[in-house]
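Researcher: Good morning. I'm working through a list of sequences from a screen, and I'd like to move beyond sequence-only analysis. For each chain I'm collecting a predicted structure so we can compare shapes side by side. This is the next one on the list. No need for commentary yet; just the structure.
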Amino acid sequence: MVTDTRSCAQCGVGFSPRREHARFCSARCRVAWNRLNASGPAAVGDALDWTITAMRETIDRLQRARGWDQPHAFAAVSEAVWWVTMVDATLVRYHPDAYDGVLAGHAAAEREIIEGTFGGLRFVRNQMGYYLDHADFIKPGAAAIATWTWRPLPEPGLDSLPARGQEWEMTRYREYQARLAERPVGETFQCAATFLHRASESCLTRP
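Model: Good morning. Structure tokens for this chain:
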């Protein structure tokens, strides 16, 4: 557990977040903030529906891709990472109840896989193209890009980050090693997209 204290975005009270992106000290403050700041239900629904569609189309292209050159394939993987982590962050930030409800519907072992998969993808998002090259993450294989695998990685150098940031990033790194390393990239994205699609459907059907 990462030791951290931050101020609630609604009431200003200090609290210890259970999630990296947590902004509120309680469900009551989150609801109050949303009532004051959130867009209308139709606008929120349209935006979420659009991003989910874009994510799924990106992943579907990657799953079908064969015979691409490495730069093209690496770019496709990077785009899929971006869409998945963006949709996940949006749901966690603005629809945490729906997100948690869908997550709670899985058995404990499945929840661990899902949460670890997203943690590992956040590590890829933060490192790929900035501190590590695409080829450091991805091991090419057969013609089908989805069968290429994530490479195991040594521990990252995090001295440039503050102590709190180092703790978060080391957690993501460990999840990458446990849930992504040596597994096919297509399997990772399929797991993530399936969960996010269910979570988005749940939040859009809530009153």
